[in-house]
Amino acid sequence: MRDQVLCLESHERPLVSLMNKSCDPVIANFEATGYEISRLLKLQAEIGISLLRADSLPEMLRQCAEALVKNLDAAFARVWTLNAKENVLELQASAGLYTHLDGPHSRILVGQYKIGMIAQERKSHLTNNVIGDPRVHDQEWAQREGMVSFAGYPLLIEDRLVGVLAMFSRKTLPDTTLVALGSVANSIALGIDRKTSERAVHESEEFTRRVLASSSDCIKVLDLDLHIKYMSPAAMKLMEVDDFGSCENADWSTFWRDPDRPMVMAAINQALAGGAGNFHAFCPTMKGTPKWWDVIVTPIKDDEGRVVKLLASSRDVTERKQLELQQRQNMERFRIVADAMPQMVWTARADGFVDYYNQRWLDYTGFTLEETQGWGWKQTQHPEDVQGSIDKWKVSLATGEVFENEMRFLRTSDKSWRWHFTRAVPVHSEGGEIIQWIGTCTDIQDRRAAEEALRNSWAELEIRVAERTAELRREVAERERAENELRQLSGNLLNLRDTEQRRIARELHDSVGQLLAATTMSLAVAAAHANDMNPEASRALSQADQFLRETIKELRIVSHLLHPPLLDETGLPSAVRGYLEGYSQRSSIKTEVFISEAFGRLPIELETAIFRVIQECLTNIHRHSGSKTAKVHISRTDGEVRVEVQDKGKGMPIHQTAGVGLRGMKERLAQFGGALEIQSNGAGTTVIARLPFAISSDTRTNA
User: What is the spatial distance between Cα 182 and Cα 168, in angstroms, rounded to a whole number?
Assistant: First the structure.
């Protein structure tokens, strides 16, 4: 501690001595009292100590302002520093009557108020007549506070303004004091400049230290003899240095292997000459871990441009070096595999420059690698294929899409153009960028020949298929024509049968029925004389009459079965109801019929077809189903007539769905564009007939 005090005193004495020298002429020229001289010397001493000892600029200026107030019995003193960027004076220290640093005078524009004018004019303003001084704008305040004198000095370093010093006093300031204040102002200006410079240097050094500490590179500072003077934290970590003292002052050039020493020294000499040198070499860590480094050596110069130290920045590229080695090994293995392949194999850079062909390519084309590198492969292609290949290749390079194309290459062994399928895929880095293309060329000449033969075979087959198709179409058309004719014939036969049945029914009803009726009347006449006959003749006559009546009844039934008269006279609903009534009596099967009252009339042919379908369904129920009930539902909607016949019998076996009766029903419906559907299981059978109907309800065809 004593040494520090002595050192400080040794720095103080020159400054005090300098102040004494500046004041000697003043003291000699003015008959000042010893007290005043002592006070000024004490002020200069305290100012000098503050300038040297204060840790920061605000603290230094505060001590200086307090020294002025104390030693000169001033009312208050203030110091502003210049903010050059904004051209503003900023209040840094205030002592005496006012100690606050805020308020209207905390920031004064250069040229504003008396303080700003001092800064702008760079001239001091001294007065012992504050009252009435035009530059003291607040005269009321000056009178109230009893201010007598004011001293304001620009703080200058040569012609450069760094601030303003100002002081108010309630006493008159002698000339010696004013002159001494000018010397004090110069000292404070030097102190401000020194503190500002120190702060700038400190900030610069701190910034440099932080930059070096935050860098991930291995940074070292060397003296001109190549001794290590500094290592960054990252450098110690990368070099596995536990204690910097173990390698401090070590000769950095000895860290490198003998084979690499010449290029290391070449980079160092280049830096010593004022330039920058770099090299790539191997150097293990302090613990023997093998590592590769990229190194840049740059000079550190002083203010006069002389090289005083060297900065060595090393980047650990071991992983990259290992990756490069692995890539070389992989490439070598790739080339071995590629040369063993029967295909032509090639690689290209990301920009499309072809940089490798396997031996198969060289043997096939007869060109050397140098002749076909880059875009030289164009000379191996058929002229008609070159431009198309270039265009597709450029598209793949621009988009990163897989390149695929078929092209012809000239085989040098027999001078023949042979087709090849060329395919190239991109290789991406971890970041997704394309770093390489790998491609193959596969001979597809035989495949294309086979494809051509196959296409010819397909063409011939298509011709034959077309011919056979046309033939089948003719056969189908002929069959359809025959089926139509058969259907028409079947329809005609059905119509003829219906017509004949209608005729027979009328004949039976009109002719035979009348004859039988006449016979009945004759028998009735004979019966009137039955008493005149012998008993046997009377019995025979009675039996004959009974048989005749039965015959008339059966004839009426047959006539109705052949063609019910109600169908022609009143229409389908009445005919169906009448038929079901007789059907129930003859078969003992309970029947139900559902027909809308507004059903209306249909064309006679359509009504006849529907009646025959119902008749056939009920006949099948009686013969095969064993059902005790039967339901008939007939409905008519816009565009369709639907007939549904349902029983609760044993169901219909599959082989019976193609019987003669069902075929007949289908034929009848087909005449009118209708269809038949059969639903059958163990619980019964439902037959559904649908017939399209677009004729108005009052249209009918007379029989």
Answer: 15
From CA 395, how far away is CA 383, in angstroms rounded?
A: 20
- How far separated are the first and last CA of the chain, in Å rounded? 148
Query: Which whole number is the average pLDDT over 226-238?
Result: 86
Confidence of residue 505 (pLDDT cuts 50, 70, 90): low
pTM over 0.85: no
Report the C-alpha gap between 372 and 369 in whole angstroms: 5
Q: Where are the alpha helices (DSSP H) in 438-534?
A: 445-507, 513-528
Give all strands of the β-sheet with 684-692 in edge-to-edge order: 590-595, 629-637, 640-647, 684-692, 675-681
Q: In what order do the strands lie in the sheet with 88-96?
A: 107-109, 88-96, 76-83, 160-169, 149-157, 125-127
Instruction: Report helix, strand or coil for 254.
Output: helix
As given in the structure block, the two tokens for residue 492 are: 């005609």
From 27-36, 218-227, 230-239, 604-613, the region with the lowest mean pLDDT? 27-36
Buried b (16+ CB within 10 A) or exposed e, 35-56: ebbebbbebbbbbbbbbeebee
SS3 letters across 676-700: EEEEEECCEEEEEEEEECCCCCCCC
Roughly what angle, to the nearest 10 degrees, separates helices 660-671 and 604-620? Answer: 160
pLDDT in tens, 550-602: 676 666 666 566 667 667 777 888 888 888 888 888 888 999 999 887 788 88
CA separation (Å) from 628 to 485, 618, 625? 41, 12, 9
Tell me the backbone φ, ψ of residue 646, rounded to 5 degrees.
-130, 140
**What DSSP letter does each residue of 560-594 carry, written as one string?**
HHH--HHHHHT-HHHHHHHHHHHHHHHH--EEEEE
Using the structure block, give the residue that is written with the tokens 């059978």: 685
In a 13 Å sphere around the CA of 252, the CA atoms on its Cβ side amount to 27
Burial of 232-259, coded b for 16+ CB within 10 Å and e otherwise, reads: bebbbebbebeeeeebeeeebeebbeee
Burial category of 310 from C-beta neighbours within 10 Å (exposed 0-12, middle 13-18, buried 19 and up): buried
Alpha carbon distance 133, 177 (integer Å)? 20
Cα–Cα distance measured from residue 122 to residue 189, given in angstroms and rounded to the nearest whole number: 13
Q: Alpha-carbon Rg of the chain, whole angstroms?
A: 65
CA nearest neighbour of 437 among 525, 506, 352, 497: 352
Query: Which tokens is 434 given?
Result: 């394309």
H/E element, 231: strand 228-231
Whole-Å CA distances, 548 to 2, 511, 530, 561, 619: 169, 15, 17, 20, 27
Which of the two residues, 225 and 654, has the higher pLDDT score? 225
Task: List Cα–Cα distances, 26 to 14, 30, 549, 565, 643, in angstroms.
Answer: 19, 6, 180, 163, 144
